[in-house]
Amino acid sequence: MTTATFDMPVGAQKSFGTAGVAVALLLPIALVNAIGFILPVLNLARMSFNEALPGGGIAEALTAANWTGLLHDSFYIELITNSIVVSLGITLATLLVSYPIALYLHRASGAWRTFLTVLVISPLLTSAVVRTYGWIALLAEQGPVANVIASMGFQPPRMMFNTTGVVIGLTEILMPYMILSLMAGFGRLDPKVEEAARTLGATPFRTFWRVILPLTLPGIALGCLLCFVLAISSFITPKLMGGGRVFLLATEIYDQAIVTLNWPLAATLSMLVLIIFGAALAVYSRILRMIEG
Amino acid sequence: MEENPTSWFMRVTVTILFLFLLAPVLLVFPISFSGDQILAFPPSSWSLQWYEALLGNTVMMSAFLTSLGLATVVTVLSLIIAIPASYAIVRLKVTGSEFLFNLFTAPLLLPTIVLGLAILIIFASMGLLATFTGLVIGHLVITLPYALRVLSVSLGNLNLACEEAAASLGAKPLAVFGKVTLPMMAPGIVAATALCFLVSFDEVVITLFLTGPRMTTLPVELFHHVESQADPLVASVSVLLILMTLAVVMIVDRTMGLTKAFMK
Amino acid sequence: MMHQTIKRDGVETIGDPYLCLEGMNKKYGLVEVISNLNLAVRKGELIALLGPSGCGKTTTLRMIAGLIAPTAGRITVGGRDVTQIAPHGRDMGLVFQSYALFPHMTVAKNVAFGLEMRGLSRADIANKVAKALGMVQLEHLAERKPRELSGGQQQRVALARALVIEPSILLLDEPLSNLDAKLRDEMRTQIRDIQQQLGITTVFVTHDQVEALSMCDRIVVMKGGLIEQVGTPHEIYERPATPFVASFVGRTNRVKGKRTADGCIRIGSSMIRSARPAVQDDVMVMVRPHRIHIDWNAASTEQQGETANRMAAVLSRITFVGDVIQYHFDVGGSEFIVEESTKKSQVSRDQGDKAVLSWSVEDTLVFGADQ
């Protein structure tokens, strides 16, 4: 599999044998990759075609029963639809709260921009458990958010242990990814284009709608793809903030694997997540072609 | 633009959104000094009782030590494995090196919930569940792609002429690597070290599948604790986690600048 | 100084072939970047590989250093075949265009590197490093890091580092191209002085004809992986073997002509002669701009002498270039540029002025039009 390329120094091929050395250098990482990635994933794919026996056993014979069962069980149909709808909602919410920050950061410069960028990245370096805990504190029944709403004379809604809490928490947790993707896509947004539109008499709103937004569409598409796949596969926040009352694909995978010990079903649901990933990617490239074309 | 009302509106919006982004992390600090027995904000009184409780909590403390040891071992192994691999891919340019690079960084594309389940099933048959070895391998699966990526970029940016100069001055290949290539990669190695340590130290989802009552890490223990009772003890542990992260980030920043390391 | 022993202990003297390239060939896939290159470099000689980018000069240098394995061919140094020897065993000093100083080492450590690789004692190393840094006048910067030095200083460190190992051959890859014009002139002299002082055989890659002409004993002009001409700077300038050499080294006027039955060349309505006879019917005539004399008062071109060519011309444009003035003439539809030094050109001339251009038959270069 390995041969030296053309521009090797003299002696490299003979004195220490590039191919041999390369294999030796790559062997450890290949081993970890094989044991911890390729083998497990192939095994998982195969297990989605095994049947679970009562008591946690697994039948050897291959069957499509998990898949057909899944598609005929109204609970799972609803689980899948619900997961997709909630993830789309989270993606949209994340886009709306991230776009102004990304646009502001794109226009900022110097040390101020660096400082704000660090602020955006820093939550990424903080454990999702810690951030979810922060949201539990904020959204609790007697928590600060509820108190503020009550002080304004409204009846505070329930924001914990339901979908609302999960959406709020995940929106915040996915914001840094969205902001970074948007900023990457904003590269081609030249402030001069905006100025040009303004000097031609466009109102700020029209400038945004006709000039800024179209130019930033590729960044929006990238950020939405990333947030959607992260939302549909996220586990920590729905598990902790859903309080066992919000059923999403990721939490169901965990419950089937750890609580019910139905590994084949968990494997099938995992494969389903990967299929949704693939579908999202296909939609993304389709949209990107439309934007670029 | 200064007097522009839109710009003023924009600033207020951005400030509120930043507050939304940072609120949950910032909130953890005051809560950790709460004098209350249950989670409430703002706390009715202040104290250090939850830090005392943390020090007295043997499960948390042993989980913390496990996490520390695990992250250290994983980081060292990641470097030992990824440095030679990046050299083979970037410098020796074996055929299919691009394919190999993509293959070795592919675990990052998989959702951790799927990867965790997949590893759980394989490790169960190998007897690696709830063992230190199992955790090390499980973490390596996700730290190695980061290490390989950072080190390959670092190596690719080096001036190849320096290595050629060393060879022409009489250095054998191993001496060139040890005396010229490796020292010149230092910033990349620091970044990879920090990244591997943070990823391993903060990892929850995959670790959840691989831990057991006998062998648990701090983030997993924290997860289980929040699941059962979200008291201010979690806040004090969170502060500990955040400070660890901050320390690592500051070391990187000192060495090469934060944005450079993470804004690839 | 360091090389005097090496120079005198053998039977070789300056003039013997020392570095020989025989039948060198380099292919990348199907693309041949060096084709059948043969070259003998004499001991103690400073030879330039000159050509435009992509001509194969750097590839040739890197093959000599062992950094690129040739597809075919043989390299010998003093009779010893080094073709299969790895770079670290070749004993050649190499100076890179980017200098390639080790950024994590001090200047002294950089220079000491090659000596450490050779396992010399600490005392010997310190001694030789001090001498080498003295030679390039950088003793006072020994403990600095490369990034704290100016471009010229870095360049001299790179030179000291390559020379301190007393290599059999010094290889310079466009060493002056990253320096500003003034520093480049200084370094030219300094490199040439050190090279002659040490008597070290040196191969110098450059795309700058002035560097090649002013510094080197001989020049190899390359184009498209082939050698166009090898010769002394004088030979290359005065007797270019190909139109490419004539136009790449020095400036030249070029105009198309036809060979006539009596061996003369007809350009438009004028007839001229050349020292070397034309080999084809369609020819390209080349004349260096500063070898042409302008006679503003000549009445006609009748008195065609034995040793000079004369042509009537009309002035079309004047360009002032500081130390010279360029007159652009229209000669029967072709443009001829003539250069005169500024002090001579006191009389102001106007567009449309008539003159007779003359130049010696010796200075008339003739090539086949398809060459």
From TrEMBL, chain B:
It is a multi-pass membrane protein. Residues 64-252 form the ABC transmembrane type-1 domain. Its main location: membrane. Keywords: Cell inner membrane, Cell membrane, Membrane, Transmembrane, Transmembrane helix, Transport. It holds the Pfam family BPD_transp_1. SUPFAM superfamilies: MetI-like. Signal peptide: none annotated. One of its GO terms (biological process) is transmembrane transport. It is found in: Cell inner membrane; Cell membrane. It comes from the Bacteria. PANTHER family: INNER MEMBRANE ABC TRANSPORTER PERMEASE PROTEIN YDCV. This is Polyamine ABC transporter permease.
UniProtKB/TrEMBL annotation, chain C:
It is a peripheral membrane protein. Residues 19-249 form the ABC transporter domain. Transmembrane segments: none annotated. One of its GO terms (cellular component) is ATP-binding cassette (ABC) transporter complex. The keyword ATP-binding applies. Its main location: membrane. It is found in: Cell inner membrane. Keywords: ATP-binding, Nucleotide-binding, Transport. It holds the Pfam family ABC_tran. GO terms for molecular function: ABC-type transporter activity; ATP binding; ATP hydrolysis activity. InterPro entries: AAA+_ATPase, ABC_SmlMolc_Importer, ABC_transporter-like_ATP-bd, ABC_transporter-like_CS, Mo/tungstate-bd_C_term_dom, P-loop_NTPase, Transp-assoc_OB_typ2. PANTHER family: SPERMIDINE/PUTRESCINE IMPORT ATP-BINDING PROTEIN POTA, SPERMIDINE_PUTRESCINE IMPORT ATP-BINDING PROTEIN POTA. Belongs to the ABC transporter superfamily. This is Spermidine/putrescine ABC transporter ATP-binding protein. It comes from Phyllobacterium brassicacearum. The lineage of its organism: Bacteria, Pseudomonadati, Pseudomonadota, Alphaproteobacteria, Hyphomicrobiales.
